[in-house]
Amino acid sequence: MGTVLTVDNINVYYGAIHAIKGISFEVNKGEIVTLIGANGAGKSTTLHTVSGLLRSKTGDIKFLGKSIAKTPAHKIVAKGISHVPEGRRVFQEMTVRENLEMGAFITKADKVKPNVEYVYEQFPRLKERKSQIAGTLSGGEQQMLAMGRALMSNPQLLMLDEPSMGLAPILVDQIFEIIRNLNKSGTTILLVEQNANMALSIADRAYVIETGRITLSGSGEELAKSEKVRKAYLGG
Question: What does pTM read for this prediction?
Answer without folding.
Answer: 0.92
